[in-house]
Amino acid sequence: MADAVDPPVLEIEDLRAAPTDGGDDILNGVTLTVRPGEVHAVMGPNGSGKSTLANVLLGSPEYEVTGGTVRFRGDDIADWGPDARGAAGMFLAFQYPQAIPGVSVLNFLRQALSARKGIDLSMLELRLSIMEWMERLGIDPSFADRHLNDGFSGGEKKRNEVLQMAILEPEVAILDETDSGLDIDALRTVARGVEEVRRDRPDLGVVVITHYQRLLDELAPDVVHLIVDGRIVLTGGPELATELEAEGYGKWTGDAA
Q: Which of 15, 32, 64, 237 is the most buried (most CB within 10 A)?
């Protein structure tokens, strides 16, 4: 974890957002700060705004920011589109990664990394880098030539997201329910991959969005936030995740027995 005096990599202040096609705000004033090297977990029940937060942070056109600010490394990114945010060093691991038939993992990463670095990388340069990371992450080398997420198992899709995170070298990574649909062995494999990337990039800020403690048992967050009705209502250390796992969200949602 970075020293508390280090400048934040991500600052979210009173963030409010609604669907672009109309409707009430889903985010109702989210505030949190991530410094280099920190792992923050955002937990909450279904419909609390967790995935909306992830999508808003990466500039999804499906949502409109109606108030508040998001700063990335000190810059207000309100006018930045998804491509600009990704090129600057923001990364989103999707809950449901999309398949792209006809586009290999290698080709996809070449385009994404070329945009991130601002240079046109050769296939040979990229293949060498990918092969190194595949070995570190325990991924079969043939993976590079498969079509992106096409026919991938749930675990393969999530491991591919970790591979992307390793290759693109972001400054902050948003992991949107990376544990969704994974059995315990696949979850541990993915979590170890995230930790391998963090060992290589100790200043990487990570925001883990999840329902459950099991992923946090592997990643050991520095800070845990509880989000309910689009607001962070409680913040604590790793012990908060244990408490929420044991007691549920009822006393915060009004559904307590």
A: 15
Q: What is the pTM of this model?
A: 0.89
Residue 256 has pLDDT above 70, yes or no: no
pLDDT in tens, 114-152: 888 877 777 787 888 888 888 888 888 888 889 888 888
Give a yes or no: residue 1 inside a domain. Answer: no
Q: What is the DSSP string of 187-206?
A: HHHHHHHHHHHHHH-TT-EE
Q: Let me know if residue 117 belongs to a domain.
A: yes
Q: Say if residue 246's pLDDT is above 70.
A: yes
Residue 202 confidence class, pLDDT cut points 50, 70, 90: very high
The DSSP secondary structure of the chain, one letter per residue, reads ---TTSPPSEEEEEEEEEETTS-S-SEEEEEEEE-TT-EEEEE--TTSSHHHHHHHHTT-TTEEEEEEEEEETTEE-TT--HHHHHHHTEEEE-SSPPPEEEEEHHHHHHHHHHHHHTS---HHHHHHHHHHHHHHHT--GGGGGSEETTT--HHHHHHHHHHHHHHH--SEEEEESTTTT--HHHHHHHHHHHHHHHHH-TT-EEEEEES-SHHHHHH--SEEEEEETTEEEEEE-HHHHHHHHHH-SHHHHT---
Query: Do 60 and 82 form a contact (C-beta atoms < 8 A)?
Result: yes
Domain-embedded: residue 5: no
The token pair that represents 40 in the structure block: 């923050």
